[in-house]
User: What shape does this take?
Amino acid sequence: MKKYYDREFQLDQLKSIQKKAFEEHSRMTLLKGRRRIGKTTLGRLSMEGADSVYLFVARKSESDLCEAFSNEIRTALNAFLPTGVTRFRELFEWLLAEGERRPFNLFIDEFQEFYYINPSVFSDIQDIWDRRRKDSHVNLVLSGSSYTLMERIFKDQKEPLFGRADLTIEMEPFATNVLKEILRDHKADYDNDDLLALYCFTGGVPKYVELFMDNGCTDMESMVDYMVLPGSLFIEEGERILIQEMGKNYGTYFSILDRIAADEVTLPQIEGSLGNRNLAGQMKLLEEEYHLIAKKRPLRSGDHTKDVRYELSDVFLRFWFRYFDRHRNLLEIKNYLTLRDIIKKDYKTYSGRVLERWFRQKLMESQSCTEIGGWWKPVRGAEQNPREIDLVTVDLDGRPHAFEVKRKREKYVPAVFEAKVNEMSDRLFGGRPVDFSCLTMEDM
Assistant: This one.
């Protein structure tokens, strides 16, 4: 049996609400998260040992879907269900009625797809749920990987299912310590460059990690070799994720994300590289509706500062845009070897940038800080030396710390960094002493 990593807290939550549904009355749980994050695995694991119905909402006609669902329900519950059901409303009514006779789990995966099949399903579910949940014992788990649609269905006050979920679980990529555990289990003598490569290429997304480990890819070279194989899941993965969120009108959004992945991180830079178009509206949607980008501001600069940089929120998508999307011409002519060589040649430079993200995540997971961010002062006029500090934290005792992030410690120049820290201290901390040091791969 394959080892199951992490998710203990979420598993306990699902077990607890299942118990309440079976013993008291029906409960509804919302399970959210991006594609490949492990929602289906977690949901099904939580239901082991009890009667359970698993329904996957494929994008087909409602009547075809109901036929497939009916067969699944009959098998899972060993119950009589009339043939010829063509509307999901009828099936859901039958399931809640069956739940009045006995408890069982009902897991509906990719629930948001009903939006494209028959949006009235959401009103039907609301009506039946409100009428019958108190008299039934169904543990209903609704899972979806389209962030935008799931937010609209359950958080928009105008939508029928607003406020109906008893519990919402939003799944995140694996934490840094979990990635270490996984890699150690598959390569006891791994080094931190192996760990950094795993983070760079997966961002901690469980499915990508699983693919690497199952195929013996535990170092940078083998991971890259695997990703660029013909038919590799990685080649089209970013496009699949984004089309699911945005539909087919994704051209401008792809261009913006590509520019951010290329380190053009301010709005003027992005607009300039895309023909000086006004992109403020698209940037707002990418940040607030799709949650694909995030603003970075100098620590303590406030929400109103104009000194804003953007980054891709998803570590894997940053990598995918930088290599797979940008070099699509190579993929179209099946020149996988050249793409492989480009990724490997650029790896040290690219991973050095991602290393800062690793330490930021690790510090957040430690819960030992009240503030975490970066600090920079824009270069003006004839100035040549940009004053920038990779990471600044304030610990629980109020003490500030500054960190420069380097792959190798030999490139760290303490005197130069100290001058930047002193200037930052004057501006942010009233000249108070600030502890400073260098974080390298040795500290991962």
About this structure: The mean pLDDT is 94. The radius of gyration is 25 Å.
